[in-house]
Write a structure and sequence with these properties.
Shape of chain B: globular
Strand order of the largest sheet of chain B: 7-11-6-1-4-5-12
Oligomer: heterodimer
Order of helices and strands of chain A: EEEEEHEHEHEHEEEEHEHEEH
Number of helices of chain A: 7
Structural class of chain B: alpha/beta
Largest sheet of chain B: 7 strands, parallel
Largest sheet of chain A: 9 strands, mixed
Order of helices and strands of chain B: EEEHEHEHEHEEEEEEEEHEHEHEEH
Radius of gyration of chain A: 22 Å
Strand order of the largest sheet of chain A: 11-10-9-12-8-1-6-7-13
Shape of chain A: globular
Strand content of chain A: 25-35%
Helix content of chain B: 25-40%
Distance between the termini of chain A: 57 Å
Number of strands of chain B: 18
């Protein structure tokens, strides 16, 4: 079993965001980037499969040279190696262009399963797992809160707004996971030290046979025209309940009525 | 001007509220005819309502293969409808199922996708979408580059549904060829958890969300009662879902859902930035918390400092009395 976990380097949600108004892209070095939280669930799930059934688990990251800190972080959970796709032409790519690059990198690899977080915490499009599956001609089982592998198939409990559905597809397949699937471990000191020595291969677009004219800011299928800060919201009235609950409840009803919300 | 194609999400032939909103937006903002796509068993029954909101042509594929969440047949249907209608722009309800369908369709047609749009404007013949980014901290205007099929995912409640006064649309049965790959992913079981008749969180106009301050799973009974009296949905913070007090699919925030209801009430939710990233574009925000310094108060239109276990019961009672 060979599992590949695509991961993303993202800005910390809590950090202030800075936009380069020339390119209308996020200044990704303005704050310390982190490993996308959702990818920790896919890494954990891959590690559980490795520990239970035996598997080679490889991390795949599309990102610039300095994304290696994020890759080493991913490796510190106990993964076996990493592939980094770095090329200046990729900068500014939209979800589809990134999926195109990920697909090209995966097409060079043998794998049974691609395990990834359901979305990145920065762009949050939720599009990449399906786009990747389409580029590779593979089934996609998304929003998995439970994953079982047996007899050459993957079966997931797929979270829906009103419960879940059990969905199955033959391997190889793309599986994206949600938070409910597991509780990620913390990397051990041993894991952190070992991560420094794990093999990391780098590829550029030419090595993957991807035309630079298909990706990047200028060639993505979508185009950002303008980014403006949303005016900061000012806090409204705040009242203190007297401990009975009645004062607070009454004030709230009056507010809702005044706003015509009831 | 080529028509705009709207993907209609429906419940056994009854279009969901969001579908009527999107058809209305397509009619008012699109500059062309509105065509709709209705797929799945019983789908054709939704054509009349789509027509009432402004659709002139309905492509209908009453296929058993398009069971809920069976992605690949839906992709085939969407691509077939796009070709049949001559549309270059598709509007669809932005939700997880559609992100799978449209993600594949955009690759298959060399199109582009803009998700979670809250406004649409026409620039010449091209649609431009407005969307909140970075949890609502900024607003972006973006479009699909010209000459490609353009898919815009529209957020629920971004537009008001208005009837157009139009009659029923012309119904065109859709011919869809499915190859073997379309059925390799199979839904083997469907498990519905009782939502107590509440609306889906992403579609609800009102969301009452509970957090750590509820103290235990039992605290969510109060949140549910308040949601019910306001005809709203129930949300939860990560602390509450991590503790197992409420199912994960109700989680709002960075690692959960993004919601933008008309009214959001946070009960016992402190409002960490990860939570705010999922709800701060709500039109009206109310916070109830005994910690007067809870960060949610900073973005709340109205805040009550106090014990929610004391405040919610008389609040529910008063609202129920007013409702009659």
């Amino acid at each position: 079993m060979r599992i590949i976990c695509p991961v993303k380097r993202v800005p910390d949600t809590a950090a202030d965001k800075s936009i380069d108004q020339d390119t209308l892209t996020l200044d990704r070095d303005a704050s310390d980037p982190v490993l996308n939280a959702n990818d920790e669930w896919s890494i954990e799930e891959a590690m559980r499969i490795k520990e239970r059934d035996g598997a080679e688990v490889i991390v795949l990251c599309v990102g610039p040279e300095n994304a290696q800190t994020t890759i080493r972080k991913a490796l510190s959970y106990g993964l076996d190696g990493a592939i980094q796709v770095a090329d200046p032409a990729i900068a500014g790519s939209d979800a589809k262009a990134i999926a195109r690059v990920l697909a090209a990198a995966l097409a060079e690899e043998d794998f049974d399963l691609v395990l990834m977080g359901n979305q990145s915490s920065d762009a949050r499009t939720m599009l990449v797992p399906a786009m990747l599956a389409e580029y590779l001609g593979l089934p996609a089982l998304t929003y998995a809160k439970r994953l079982q592998l047996a007899d050459g198939s993957a079966t997931v409990d797929r979270e829906t707004p009103s419960g879940h559905q059990t969905v199955t597809a033959p391997l190889p397949a793309i599986v994206s996971v949600v938070e409910a699937i597991n509780e990620p471990r913390y990397p051990s000191f041993k894991g952190i030290m070992a991560a420094k020595k794990k093999p990391l291969e780098t590829r550029d677009l030419a090595a993957l046979g991807v035309d630079a004219g298909e990706v990047g800011l200028a060639n993505s299928s979508t185009q950002v025209l303008e980014i403006t800060p949303r005016p900061p919201k000012e806090a409204g009235d705040k009242i203190e309940d007297d401990g009975s609950g009645v004062v607070g409840a009454k004030a709230l009803v009056e507010f809702l009525a005044a706003q015509k919300l009831i | 001007m080529s028509p705009i194609l709207v993907f209609v999400d429906h419940d056994h032939g009854t279009p969901k509220k969001v579908s009527n909103q999107i058809i209305t937006a397509a009619r008012q903002r699109g500059g062309g005819e509105v065509h709709v796509l209705l797929m799945g068993e019983g789908a054709g029954a939704g054509a009349a309502q789509a027509g009432a909101h402004g659709a002139t042509t309905a492509y209908v594929w009453e296929a058993g293969e398009v069971a809920e969440y069976a992605t690949e047949p839906a992709v085939a249907g969407l691509v077939a409808a796009l070709e049949a209608s001559g549309a270059t722009t598709v509007l669809y309800p932005a939700d997880p199922f559609m992100s799978d369908v449209v993600g594949r369709a955009a690759v298959r047609t060399d199109g582009g996708v803009v998700t979670d749009v809250v406004d649409l404007t026409l620039d010449g013949t091209e649609m431009v979408g407005t969307k909140p980014i970075f949890g609502g901290a900024m607003i972006s205007r973006c479009k699909v580059r010209g000459g490609r099929p353009a898919f815009y995912g529209v957020a629920a409640n971004a537009f008001a549904a208005e009837e157009s006064g139009g009659g029923p649309p012309e119904v065109v049965p859709l011919e869809v060829d499915l190859d073997d790959t379309a059925t390799r992913t199979r839904v083997v079981e469907v498990v519905e958890q009782s939502a107590g008749g509440r609306p889906e969180m992403t579609e609800a106009g009102v969301i009452v969300a509970g957090g750590r301050g509820l103290g235990d799973a039992e605290g969510f009974r109060l949140v549910e009662q308040l949601a019910d009296v306001l005809d709203g949905a129930v949300g939860a913070s990560r602390a509450a879902t991590d503790a197992g007090w409420y199912p994960h699919q109700h989680q709002i925030g960075q690692t959960g859902k993004t919601v933008a209801p008309q009214l959001y009430i946070g009960a016992g939710i402190s409002g960490a930035i990860q939570h705010r990233a999922g709800m701060q574009t709500a039109q009206t925000i109310v916070a109830i918390n005994k910690d007067a310094d809870a960060p949610l108060f900073a973005i709340a239109d109205f805040g009550v400092v106090g014990d929610l276990h004391k405040i919610l019961p008389p609040l529910i009672e008063e609202l129920a009395a007013r409702k009659g």
